Write a sequence for this structure.
């Protein structure tokens, strides 16, 4: 029989992130648990989401600080380690993942936690080298995000084998839905700006899971006895392709789904960068510019080389650049930057190599094990999940922005 | 004229981002003391901004200054403000002036008794666009005012140093108190209504501090004593259009809640110019400097654009009325949440 988590105390790391804050909402709202939320930054929108909730207690600290984790984890019967990690050198990321995961697992062991969930990623299996049907027992050969999570999984596995800590590893695919920074917000921003970003006309296989379906999987992983010591891929049955998902957003926003079939190659990047930088410079020299802020934003939007350089900046700075000069930051009026193809700019679909591989993959991650062992099913069907997400996009102002840009 | 000698109390985010850089460029004021319980932080900032003294106790410095700027968590505004006012020191306090109308009334009474100036850090009042609209005959521009829509929000991204910001007891409220206080103050300052009432209020705060709030108010303007409907929306998690839209029967007035943008008049879908002129745009830092200048003027008994303490009583009363009428804010995308 499954125990419930009502009234139980749960340590949640990475709580201010998109998944963490939704988990906190559901764990307190639906399952009546008490959440100790460990956040690194107090002054963030994710923390504001947490601070609304009666069942959440906020703790400020870094997962690499054992004292901070111990303090937040005091009396916790369950632990969910959901830190994504910060950008930096490979060495720094590895140290952060190892130290942070060790600190969390040490606290879990000290508190005698009944269950520890480690948030890994489906990216630990590289689709390019794992065949078309990817399962948990396939090779761990991830790149980019995947290798970092492989480091964390190794630490978790060690605690399970050597210390019998009851751990469960979840490997979600691309998590989308309201507030999803990458698979909803960024995609909607690119769509409203008509920036091509989707290769193969979006026909690549979409491995994506709706946030509330993932939350269901977390709950089951917390309470299902057979889950202990196992790893689970969590992937919805739908959408089947990226065009299904992003086409749904595009239809709702009333914009076309731009694809980036021609968006590759360094030579084209240089050519478009030189052309578009020339347009911005000519506008500025001709006295038709609308101020340094807007010119900076145009450089970010239309000079792919600059955008590539910006991708090396810390995420906070990148976020500021992405929203700089956008109506709503105080400025009203037209968008800061015309759509690609307009105003003399050449379009360029900025798409990094990992994203191109992800969007172009034909591999499918299987959730059979989660269905069999946890009894998990994607409770929210794709059509309803899309409808909810579109309602959120409207609430978040994307529909109005798309209409303004058009 | 001798500069106003003051102490800055609190070394948190607003002191570092707003007051310290502004104080360094305002000759009308001179910061002599930096006061914070975190002495090493105060010393570091004092060295950086060339402030001669640091202290950990406000009471110990009050005899050595003429005024204080309070940039401390909300629950300390009233006790520290009262301490300074009762010793005859002028006070410029970060917003909200108090967590409740009662706290503000207490500070105003102390200010009157001591004859010491009391001002609230309502930075919107330093925005050139709002200053241009203040006193303009809006009805002449727009015809009869039908509706006002005020929306202010952006995903929170602020180098907070204290979790007190999110504690109901200490903060006194969430987005409504923190952001809404600016907008409500601007509405009352711009349009000087004869009264305002809360028709409906919703927020998502459960038993804690809200991230989003929505209120329907009625503003009884001189020209519309029956009350003009006013929608107020504030958010800490999403970007809103950050402006006050005044919809009239002939045209609409769009007032950006920004120091860098000018108001505009929209007639038949076309954006036109205003019959009033605004000063050039300012940076946020300029606005803090202007606020300190205005406070120094208020200290000398001169007319100033700083928000005096009494002006905050109706603002806090409105906020209290909102909280008293609170209903939960529900979101359509929660239809499939596991609790449904």
């Amino acid at each position: 029989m499954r125990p419930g988590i009502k009234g139980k105390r749960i340590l949640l790391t990475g709580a201010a992130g998109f998944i963490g804050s939704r988990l906190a909402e559901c764990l307190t709202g639906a399952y009546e648990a008490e959440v100790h939320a460990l956040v690194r930054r107090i002054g963030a929108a994710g923390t504001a989401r947490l601070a609304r909730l009666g069942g959440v207690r906020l703790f400020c600290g870094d997962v690499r600080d054992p004292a901070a984790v111990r303090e937040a984890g005091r009396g916790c019967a369950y632990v969910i380690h959901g830190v994504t990690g910060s950008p930096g050198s490979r060495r720094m990321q590895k140290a952060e993942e190892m130290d942070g995961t060790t600190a969390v697992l040490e606290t879990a062991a000290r508190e005698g936690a009944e269950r520890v969930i480690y948030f890994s990623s489906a990216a630990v299996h590289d689709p390019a080298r794992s065949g078309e049907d990817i399962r948990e027992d396939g090779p761990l050969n991830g790149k980019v995000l995947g290798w970092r999570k492989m480091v964390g999984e190794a630490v978790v596995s060690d605690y399970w084998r050597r210390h019998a800590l009851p751990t469960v590893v979840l490997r979600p695919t691309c998590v989308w839905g309201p507030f999803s920074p990458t698979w909803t917000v960024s995609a909607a921003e690119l769509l409203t700006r008509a920036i091509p970003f989707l290769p193969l006309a979006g026909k690549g296989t979409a491995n994506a899971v709706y946030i509330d379906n993932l939350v269901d999987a977390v709950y089951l992983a917390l309470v299902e006895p057979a889950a202990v010591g196992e790893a689970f891929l969590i992937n919805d049955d739908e959408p089947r392709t990226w065009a299904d998902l992003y086409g749904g957003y595009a239809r709702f926003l009333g914009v076309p789904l731009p694809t980036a079939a021609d968006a590759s190659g360094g030579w084209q990047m240089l050519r478009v960068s030189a052309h578009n930088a020339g347009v911005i410079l000519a506008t500025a020299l001709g006295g038709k510019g609308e101020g340094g802020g807007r010119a900076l934003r145009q450089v970010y939007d239309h000079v792919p080389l600059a955008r590539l350089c910006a991708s090396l900046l810390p995420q906070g700075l990148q976020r500021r650049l992405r929203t700089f000069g956008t109506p709503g930051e105080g400025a009203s009026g037209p968008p800061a930057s015309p759509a690609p193809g307009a105003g003399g700019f050449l379009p360029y679909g900025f798409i990094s190599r990992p994203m191109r591989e992800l969007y172009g993959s034909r591999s499918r991650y299987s959730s059979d094990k989660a269905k069999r062992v946890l009894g998990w099913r994607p409770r929210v069907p794709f059509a309803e999940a899309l409808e909810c997400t579109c309602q959120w996009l409207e609430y978040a102002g994307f529909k109005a922005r798309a209409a303004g840009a058009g | 004229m001798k500069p106003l000698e003051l102490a800055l109390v609190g070394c948190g985010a607003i002191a570092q981002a707003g007051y310290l850089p502004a104080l360094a460029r305002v000759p009308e004021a001179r910061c002599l003391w930096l006061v914070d319980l975190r002495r090493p932080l105060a010393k570091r900032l004092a060295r950086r901004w060339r402030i001669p003294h640091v202290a950990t106790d406000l009471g110990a410095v009050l005899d050595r200054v003429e005024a204080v700027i309070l940039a401390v968590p909300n629950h300390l505004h009233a006790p520290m403000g009262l301490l300074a006012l009762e010793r005859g020191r002028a006070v410029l306090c970060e917003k909200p002036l108090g967590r409740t109308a009662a706290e503000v009334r207490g500070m105003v009474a102390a200010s009157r008794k001591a004859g010491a100036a009391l001002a609230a850090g309502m930075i919107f009042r330093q925005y050139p666009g709002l200053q241009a609209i203040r006193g303009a005959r809006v009805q002449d521009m727009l015809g009869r005012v039908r509706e006002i829509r005020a929306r202010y929000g952006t995903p929170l991204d602020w180098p907070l140093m204290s979790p007190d910001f999110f504690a109901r007891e200490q903060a006194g409220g969430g987005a409504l108190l923190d952001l809404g206080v600016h907008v409500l103050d601007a509405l009352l300052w711009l349009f000087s209504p004869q009264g305002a009432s809360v028709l409906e209020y919703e927020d998502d705060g459960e038993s804690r501090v809200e991230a989003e709030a929505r209120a329907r108010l009625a503003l009884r303007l001189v020209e519309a004593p029956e009350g003009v409907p006013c929608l107020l929306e504030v958010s800490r998690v999403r970007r809103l259009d950050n402006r006050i839209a005044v919809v009239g029967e002939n045209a609409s007035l769009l007032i950006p809640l920004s120091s860098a943008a000018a108001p505009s008049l929209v007639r038949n879908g076309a954006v036109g110019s205003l019959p009033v002129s605004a000063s050039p745009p300012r940076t946020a830092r300029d606005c803090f400097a202007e606020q300190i200048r205005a406070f120094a003027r208020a200290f000398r008994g001169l007319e100033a654009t700083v928000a005096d303490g009494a002006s905050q009583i109706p603002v806090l009363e409105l906020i209290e009325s909102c909280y008293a009428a609170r209903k939960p804010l529900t979101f359509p995308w929660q239809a499939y949440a596991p609790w449904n």
Q: What stands out?
A: The radius of gyration of chain A is 22 Å. The mean pLDDT of chain A is 86. Residues 8 and 33 of chain A are 5 Å apart (CA to CA).
